[in-house]
Design brief:
9-stranded mixed beta sheet, alpha/beta, 9 strands
Length: 299
């Protein structure tokens, strides 16, 4: 069977997922080593729980589902969008650190092997600080990762690109959905030329609160480490920090954030958070950390 057949089977199995979250299906496919094996009923090597999930998926997959998935892959390729599944060698190694990695991502642009040396920049309000961090990280030779949903996100990408760096923009909806880019179409074009736009959703998926939550998972999943620009107690930055720490990845925060919000100390009482005085210190620490972990996060 060809690569497109395996990819189509991944899509069909994901579409058939109803009783469990998508990341459970991703894990079962990865454990089996082949989506086509699962559609054929081959569950050798899986534990009882995964066998039951695989059987449930197989019962819902039809030949028509596989054909439709192949057609979708072909259609998206014609629009310069390609699919990367959990079975492909190009699936981001950093993503595997998380327990909730997606079964596939759609990509417009090019993901490069060096993108494992990446820092995600997550913020809410302080666009100036976020831009300075993006510029420093890009000048240090690291890939910048950020969503493309807010003015701050757009500023992060623009600063990194102006510094001659690469960025990966994680979309909050489907890569072909009209509402996904909103007012950031021009920024998206720049990212596509100098990096990649990434979406873990069906191409026509409209942005929702649920997709925002998954976008955060992928933004942090693609990165080797994360820089939290700002954020109050219980906000996106706080939630992102706790999620990242659970994966074993490291988090950087500015000194001001630590001073202003007690959640930083509470979240990092077991370690995993480094407070940096400025963006120069951020880039130096990030380079050291990423290069130290590179052997386990290669594509």
């Amino acid at each position: 069977m060809t690569r497109i057949d395996e990819q189509a089977a991944v899509l069909a199995l994901t579409k058939a997922t109803r009783t469990q979250p998508w990341h459970h299906t991703a894990r079962v496919i990865a454990a089996a080593g082949s989506a086509l094996k699962l559609t054929d009923g081959d569950v050798i090597g899986l534990d009882e729980t995964d066998q039951a999930h695989a059987a449930d998926l197989r019962s819902r997959v039809s030949v028509e589902d596989l054909d439709q998935a192949r057609d979708l892959i072909t259609t998206m390729r014609a629009d310069d969008v390609h699919l990367i599944t959990v079975l492909d060698d190009t699936y981001p190694g950093n993503m595997m650190w998380a327990n909730n990695y997606p079964p596939f991502v759609w990509v417009r642009g090019r993901m490069a092997p060096e993108d494992y040396r990446a820092v995600a920049i997550v913020g809410e309000h302080d666009s100036e600080q976020a831009s300075a961090a993006a510029r420093a990280v890009a000048e240090a030779g690291l890939t910048v990762i950020a969503p493309l949903r807010t003015d701050l996100d757009a500023a992060v990408h623009e600063a990194a690109l102006e510094a001659g760096g690469r960025t990966l923009g994680v979309l909050v909806g489907g890569i072909a959905a009209p509402d996904t880019l909103g007012p950031y179409t021009n920024v998206a074009r720049q990212i596509g030329r100098c990096g990649a736009l990434v979406s873990p959703f069906w191409p026509d998926t409209a942005p929702t609160d649920c997709t925002i939550a998954q976008e955060r998972v992928v933004t942090c999943g693609l990165a080797a480490t994360v820089y939290i620009v700002d954020g109050g107690d219980g906000g996106p930055g706080h939630r992102c920090t706790e999620s990242v720490l659970k994966t074993g990845k490291h988090v950087f925060v500015p000194h001001q954030l630590q001073q202003e919000h007690s959640w930083v100390a509470q979240a990092g009482f077991r370690g995993g958070i480094t407070v940096v005085q400025d963006t120069d210190k951020l880039s130096k620490h990030a380079v050291n950390l990423v290069d130290m972990c590179s052997q386990t996060t290669m594509f």
